[in-house]
Amino acid sequence: xxxxxxxxxxxxxxxxxxxxxxxxxxxxxxxxxxxxxxxxxxxxxxxxxxxxxxxxxxxxxxxxxxxxxxxxxxxxxxxxxxxxxxxxxxxxxxxxxxxxxxxxxxxxxxxxxxxxxxxxxxxxxxxxxxxxxxxxxxxxxxxxxxxxxxxxxxxxxxxxxxxxxxxxxxxxxxxxxxxxxxxxxxxxxxxxxxxxxxxxxxxxxxxxxxxxxxxxxxxxxxxxxxxxxxxxxxxxxxxxxxxxxxxxxxxxxxxxxxxxxxxxxxxxxxxxxxxxxxxxxxxxxxxxxxxxxxxxxxxxxxxxxxxxxxxxxxxxxxxxxxxxxxxxxxxxxxxxxxxxxxxxxxxxxxxxxxxxxxxxxxxxxxxxxxxxxxxxxxxxxxxxxxxxxxxxxxxxxxxxxxxxxxxxxxxxxxxxxxxxxxxxxxxxxxxxxxxxxxxxxxxxxxxxxxxxxxxxxxxxxxxxxxxxxxxxxxxxxxxxxxxxxxxxxxxxxxxxxxxxxxxxxxxxxxxxxxxxxxxxxxxx
Length: 524
Known about the structure:
The chain is α/β, with parallel strands linked by helices and 524 residues long. It is built from 13 helices and 21 strands.
């Protein structure tokens, strides 16, 4: 690793860290990026195998990755091994932490759903009297949304709805909806619920990630160095100025500890790792953790609540030869009059249309297990699968904390303290009741139970930004209230979780903050 002081130190390489590096290096600012894992080697780390060639036939080793519901034996090596880096939660309040440490982070594995937030989310408290206002509005972030939509090549249909802002979309390839999709749309419309086409990041060459859309341009400037397998232990402070001056990190393999300096520190490690990093950065001046004079670092942990919905309408007779693979139709439902606000529910992404798959259906007929055969026949005959996603409100007692004893190898080990509150349970029940009414014409569907479930992976709120230093960690520019050159750009800054996928907002805000960092600290 080059021994020098950098202008900016960036911890994390996903949507937010990659965007910060892209923008800052474009202004000629030297950056060092630290990432907790390696860059994926697709030739070495990937192989094509049939399920019968795997020890557990594709289902995965029992007890491995118990909290990652997305994991199976085919993709287990892409997730952080919980035995290597464990975390805890109360026995009666299970929490699932979905982690990726490869270069590019979660931007390698996201649903690519790309929704702008509206002022229904940014100013929720003004609209319905609960929740939190953001210190910015849609107008403040709109130009940054537009730039990110251009970079990620977001496709979508413009609707002109205030609760669902249109974006800078690439040309939308209109396609006729299948019969079943039309039936769902008609049923929703009768109830005054608006239905829109998907808004998805197309990316480039089949990938919409930091590693192919953001980091290559940053590296091409010659201003970015990346250190892989670097586990950041704490942010360090210059005792004379009170400013952040770098970080201590530990090499994941050798356990060798190192220190690197920078004029500005940008944290983009994720809404769980970032607050724990700050809480571990204790000193005589910061006994509760760096930038934590308010005692709000790590608090207000929020996630999205997910309920599965399956619809099995009459088999669609308009399946064409070109539409025999699984196709995606992602929809946004919103009733702006009553249910478009952030404190109720705003989205049901994604709605997925599973079309006829003759190849897999034929295999299903040869399965020995009648139960499994029935599932395959049902799934691959055609149906709609939705993920109903509702908002989680911020609460001080929902939080993430470091272990009581610091780890000897520098690796972050976390304690989750998270429980659903009555308002979330009631909101989810109301959401599911509304959906049940919408889906009544289909008669044959299954709906989520409304009980707690696996975490979707969307985590936010643990270092919220705001105007009052007593009730927030960051200011409106995502700078720590108490440390003038320390910024947080991952989803930690969200004051509310909203009912929409967060990635587009995270990337757009990182672009906004990086532009500010350049103007505030380096522009002449």
